[in-house]
Design brief:
Two copies of one chain form a homodimer. With 398 residues, the first copy, chain A, is α+β, with helices and mostly antiparallel strands. Chain A folds into three domains: 86 residues, Rossmann fold; 66 residues, Dna Ligase, domain 1; 196 residues, D-amino Acid Aminotransferase, Chain A, domain 1 (2-Layer Sandwich). Chain A is built from 13 helices and 16 strands. In chain A, the strands form three sheets. In chain A, strands 8, 9, 10, 11, 12, 13, 14, 15 and 16 form a nine-stranded antiparallel β-sheet that branches. In chain A, helix 3 crosses helix 4 and helix 5 packs across helix 6. The termini of chain A are far apart. Chains A and B meet through helix 2, helix 12 and strand 15 of A and helix 2, helix 12 and strand 15 of B. Chains A, B: Belongs to the PurK/PurT family. Chains A, B: It comes from Pedococcus aerophilus.
C-alpha cells in the first residue's frame, strides 16, 4: 500500500472508510484546503477511487484491512454507516480518532436505539414500539391505527428495510429473524404512519470542540422512498418551526455526541388541535447527506468542506446560502448507459446548471449524480433542475 | 505508466501538461463533471500530482515523454505556456487535439509576435518597438521618453524578464544575447511605460466551436510585479470601457484562434485630450489565470470548470457573478514553513473566507495559495481577504 502523500506545512491526512459518492465529493474541497484524503475503497473503480490518489482497496468489515488503512491517517471518518461495531471498537482500541465516534454511530446504525434515545431526551418522534412477535405487531396496529410503518432496526437505507403494513402477516418473514444475529436481532421497529404535510431535513456540522453550524432547514421530496428533489431553504417554512427544528438538530448532535456533518430527516406535521406547524423526527444520518448536496453550490460552505473541517476540529465555515433559493435534483440511472451526449445537451440548454456526476455506471434507478440551480424564482429553478435530471435519466427526450 | 481511469458513460480524459496549481485547481471541477484528468507532472509531489490519481512524471520538453502521455488522453491542454514549439508540433503531427493550438500559443510565448499581431488587428497597445542593439534602444527611448519598459520576448512571467530602463546600458547584458538561440533571439521588446490609472484583466473562455463566454472585467493589483489582489468586477468601471475591453478580449481570442480560458491583462488609461477612459493591452495568457481565481467561488462557473468545458468543446457555463463583489488575495510564502496553525487562525477569524492552498512548500515570496471573500461591501471584503493573506504569509501576527 502506497502511503497517502501529505501536503507540506503540517497538513493532516483524513481517512474515509468507503469509496462512494460522499467520499468522492470531498475530493475538491480537500484539494483546495490542502488536506490529503485516503479512501478505503470497495474496488479500484469505486466512485471516490477514480478521483483520489490514495485509495487502497479493502473491505470495511475486515479488521486488519481497516487498521492498516487507518494507521496512515490522522483522523478517520465514513462514507457510510455500515462499519460493524467490532471493527469500530478495534479502531478505538488502537487510538484512532474516529468521527463520528462509535457511540454516536450506534444511533444511526440501530433505529431502535435511536428511537429510545430521542424519546429519552424529549425530541418529537412518531409513536413507536419494538415488536418481537405477531401479537405485538397486531397490538400496536390496533392501538395506533393501520397501516403501520415497520422497519428493520439495522441495515436499511433509501427505503430498503421499510414496509408499510396492514397486518402482522406483512412482516411474517421479518419476525422469523427476530433473535437471530442480523438486522432484526432485537425485533421489528414499528412506527405510526405519520400524516405529514411534507418532509424536511436539518443539516448540521459539529466539531469535537462542540462548535456547531446549521444550514437552513430544507424541504426534501421523495419518490418511491428515494429522495429526488431538495428545496433550500424549505419554502414558506414557519420561522418558529425552522427555529425549533434546528434547535432539535443541534440538541440531538450534542446529546448523541455526533461529530462531522449530521442530518436529521423530519416530517412537518400540523397539530390536530391548534393547526400549528410542528416536526417529528424520521431518520438520522451521521455523515454528509443527500439533503445537503445543494450546499456545494448554494452555500458559502458546502457540506463536504464542512465535514472535513468538523472531523479535523478546524473552525467551521459559514453555512449561509448564496442565493434566495437553490434546488437540487437527483439524477437516477435510466436505460441508456452513455451519459455524455445527454450531459452535453443539458449543459447547452442551461448554462446556469451545476452538474455533479459520481463516475458510476448507469443502472436503472441508481443514484448516479445530481444537479443544482440557484436563483430567485423557485418555480423556474424546479423546472430547470427537474428537466436536467429527467433528461439525464432518459425520462424525457427533449 | 498506469492508464488514466475513464468514468463509465463515454466521458473523456483531459491531459494537462504541467502539474502546477492551475492543473491542481481543475481537480475538483473535473471530479464533479465526471471528467478524468491526467497530468504530466514535474515531480511526484507537484501541486497537481498530490490530488490527481493519474500524474506520470515527465519533462514537458521531452518529446517521447509528452507523446506517450498524450496517447492516453482525448485532448491535451496546459498548466503553463512553456512547452517548446517543436514538442507542440510533434503532438499536432500525431493528431493530438491541443487547446490552445500551437498557432495560438505562439502569441503567448513570444511577446514580439503578440505585439505585431495585436497591432495588425487594431487592438490598442502601448507604443512598442523591437530593438537589436543599443542604438535602437536609445532611439526608442529618446522618441517615446524615458524610462522605457524592456522585455525579453520569451520566457518571462510574474515580472521576470521585465525591466524599467533609463538607458540602453540597463539592458546591455540582454543585447549581447540577441541573435543567439533563446529568449532574446529576435531582439528586445521595448514598450512605452504606460501612465495608467489601474490594471484590468479580461477573462474569456472560447471553445473550438467558437462559443465564447466572458467574465466581468476585473481590477488587478500588483505588488513588485506580482498580482496580489483582484477585485471582481472592477469597481466603478466605466460601462463603455467594460464593453470595449471585453469586445477586445473576444476579438483577440477569435483572431488568434485561442481555445480554453484566456486572459488579457490591460492598463486602464485616460485619453490626455478628452479624459475618456480607455485600455491598452499589456500581456496575454492562454490558460486559466490568477486574475480569474475569484471565479471559483464568486461566479456560477469558475474558470477551471470553464476551461475543461472549453477544451472539450462542451457548452460553456454561465460566467455570472454570484454576489456584488468578490475579492481575491494571493497568499505568498513567508518565513515560517508550518502553515496549518495560521490557517486554523484565519478560519476561526472569518467563517466566510474561502481558502485555497496549492500544496506547495513555503518559500518567501512564492505563490502558495489564495483566498476569496464575496459580499456587498467592497472595503470590508478587501480588509478580510488582505488580512487572511497577510496572516498566512506571516506579515502580521494577529
Amino acid at each position: 500500500m502506497t502511503s497517502p502523500q501529505r501536503a507540506p506545512g503540517g497538513f493532516p491526512v483524513v481517512g474515509i472508510i468507503g469509496g462512494g459518492q460522499l467520499a468522492r465529493m470531498c475530493a475538491g474541497p480537500a484539494a483546495e484546503l490542502s488536506l490529503t484524503l485516503s479512501v478505503l475503497a470497495e474496488a479500484p473503480d469505486a466512485a471516490a477511487a477514480q478521483v483520489i490518489p490514495s485509495a487502497p482497496v479493502g473491505d470495511h468489515t475486515d479488521i486488519d484491512a481497516v487498521l492498516a488503512f487507518a494507521a496512515e491517517c490522522d483522523v478517520v471518518t465514513f462514507d457510510h454507516e455500515h462499519v460493524p461495531p467490532h471493527v469500530l471498537d478495534a479502531l478505538v482500541a488502537k487510538g484512532v480518532p474516529l468521527h463520528p465516534s462509535p457511540d454516536a454511530l450506534h444511533f444511526a446504525q440501530d433505529k431502535l436505539a435511536m428511537r429510545e434515545r430521542l424519546t429519552t431526551i424529549g425530541v418529537a418522534c412518531p409513536s413507536w414500539e419494538r415488536a418481537v412477535d405477531a401479537a405485538e405487531v397486531a397490538a400496536f396496529g390496533d392501538r395506533i391505527g393501520w397501516p403501520v410503518v415497520a422497519k428493520t432496526p439495522r441495515g436499511g437505507y433509501d427505503g430498503k428495510g421499510v414496509r408499510v403494513i396492514d397486518s402482522a402477516d406483512d412482516v411474517a418473514d421479518w419476525l422469523e429473524q427476530v433473535g437471530r444475529p442480523g438486522a432484526l436481532a432485537d425485533g421489528v421497529l414499528l412506527e405510526e404512519k405519520v400524516d405529514f404535510v411534507r418532509e424536511l431535513a436539518v443539516l448540521i456540522a459539529r466539531s469535537p470542540s462542540n462548535q456547531a453550524a446549521a444550514w437552513p432547514v430544507v424541504e426534501t421530496v421523495q419518490t418511491d422512498g428515494i429522495c429526488t428533489e431538495v428545496l433550500a431553504p424549505a419554502p414558506d417554512l414557519d420561522p418558529d418551526l425552522a427555529a425549533v427544528a434546528t434547535a432539535a438538530g443541534l440538541r440531538i448532535a450534542e446529546e448523541l455526541g455526533v461529530t462531522g456533518v449530521f442530518a436529521v430527516e423530519m416530517f412537518e406535521v400540523r397539530d390536530p388541535a391548534t393547526g400549528a406547524a410542528a416536526y417529528v423526527v424520521n431518520e438520522l444520518a451521521m455523515r454528509p447527506h443527500n439533503s445537503g448536496h445543494w450546499s456545494m453550490d448554494g452555500a458559502v460552505t458546502g457540506q463536504f468542506e464542512q465535514h472535513l473541517r468538523a472531523v479535523l476540529d478546524l473552525p467551521l465555515g459559514a453555512p449561509t446560502p448564496r442565493e434566495p433559493h437553490t434546488v437540487m435534483a437527483n439524477v437516477l440511472g435510466g436505460d441508456y448507459p452513455e451519459l455524455y451526449p445527454a450531459y452535453r445537451h443539458i449543459m447547452a440548454r442551461d448554462p446556469g446548471l451545476k452538474v455533479h456526476l459520481y463516475g458510476k455506471a448507469v443502472r436503472p434507478g441508481r443514484k448516479i449524480g445530481h444537479v443544482t440551480v440557484s436563483g430567485g424564482d423557485l418555480a423556474e429553478l424546479r423546472e430547470r433542475a427537474g428537466h436536467a435530471a429527467d433528461y439525464l435519466a432518459g425520462v424525457i427526450t427533449e
